[in-house]
Amino acid sequence: MNIGYLRDFSSTCYRSITTVKDDCIQNTFLNIANYGNFKFRKGADLNPSTTTSAPSTSNATTTTAAPTQSPTTLVPVVLMSCTSPTSCVTVSSDSTTSPIPTPVYNPTTQQCVNVVQSVHYVVVHAGSNGIQSVTAQALLANMASPTWQQSWSVEFRTATDSANPYERSGNPGYVAGEPLVAGIMKAISVNVKGRLEPRQFVELLADRWNRLTIPRANADNSCSGDRSPVTFGDDVVSDCVLSVDSSTAGDMCPYLQSKVVSTLLGAYQPSHVATLGNTSPYQAGDWVPIVKQTTPDGSQTTTQKGACSNFVTSLRIVFIYAYVGSLANPQPRIIAAAAFWGTSQTVRVECGGASCQPSSSSSTAFRVPIRATVQFIDGSTPAQAIIADPPKVKNKLPYDFFHPFYNGASSPLRGDGGVAWRQLVLFTVALLTL
Q1: CA torsion 41→42→46→47, rounded to 10°?
Q2: pTM score
Q3: pLDDT category of residue 180 using cuts at 50, 70 and 90
C-alpha cells in the first residue's frame, strides 16, 4: 500500500509462521534491519543535473544526462530498537551506535528472540520544503506462537513541533473515539524575577495512542505484546490468558500476582488525565488524578494445594464525564477517574490440560486468565430550557385622558353631569362600532 504525503497511516495483520525455528532466520519481515535499509526522497522535485553541449555547424546533437539524485535530496531512516514504547536506542551497522539486533532462535525456550512486533515511522517535514528526517521505532519481542501479529504506522510531524508534539483529542471537549490525553504529573522549578518557584506540568508520551492502554488478546486468546488504547466514550471489556514460565518463578503465587499486575497496568502508567481534549500540559489545574487503589504486590497471596488465594485477576477503570457549555453545543469534560482492582479470589493453577502448556523440555507455563474493563459514565444533569414569563402589561392612562368630558377644570362630572355622561357614552359607542 502506498503512503500519501502528510497522511498518517496505521495497519495490523497476522503472519502465518511455518516453523518458529526456520522462519526466525529466513523470514525477512521479522528482521529489524529490513525496516531501515532504504531512503526517502526529500521533495517532489529531483533537481536533475543535466549536461548540454553547445550546438555547432557540424550537426552535433544536444545530449542530456539522465536525471540523478544528489545525496542531499535523499533522507536516510534513523533506526531505533525498542524494548517498550518508552525505551528505545538508536542502532546501525557502524560503530558509532549500538549494533542492529538480529533474530536468534533459542532452543531452550523454543522462541525466536528480537522479532519485530511493530514499527512506527515518524516523518518530520517542513511543509512544501519536503521531508527533514525519518525515524523508525521498531518494537522487538520474543515469538513462540506460529501466528504472529505485526503492526505498522506512519506519523507526520512538522519541524517546529517535532521536539514537543502534542496532538489533541478534541477542541475543547473530547471527540468520541479519540484517545484520552493522559500523562505523568511532574514538578519543576521556574525562575521568576530571579527567584525559583515550583511549578507542575504533565509529561506526555509522544505516541498519543499508547498513553493509556489495556491488554489485548492474540488470535489464540493469549495476551499480546500490543495493547489497546483507551478511547473516549468506548466501554471495553478485554480478556486474555497470561502465560508465565514456571522455571523463573520462586514462590509461585506471589510471582504470578506480580506478573498479572504488570500486564494489566502496562509499562507506561499515567497519573493524570486531561479534563478536555485540548488541555495544555502546563495547566496543572485542568488535569484530574487517576485515583488508584493499593496495587496488589502478592504479599497476601498464598499457595494452597495448586491454588492461589487472595488473588486479583482484573482491573476496572472508570471515567465520569459531564457535558458543559451552551445547550446548543455541549462539550464533554472528564470530572473524575479511578482504577479499581477486582475482588480477591482463589484461582487454581495447574500444570496440564487447559491450565498449562509446555514452554520447554524441562518446564511448563502457568496460564492465568485476566480481564481489563473500561467504563465511561455520564454524570451530567439533563439540561432544561427555562423560558421567562411574558411581560405584564400595565394599562395606565394619563390623568387627563377624559379631559374633554370633564365639566370643570379639576373634577369630572360636575355641573351639568348628564351632558358629560351622554357625551362619554356616545364616544364609547362610536369607538366600538368602528
Answers
A1: -150
A2: 0.54
A3: very high
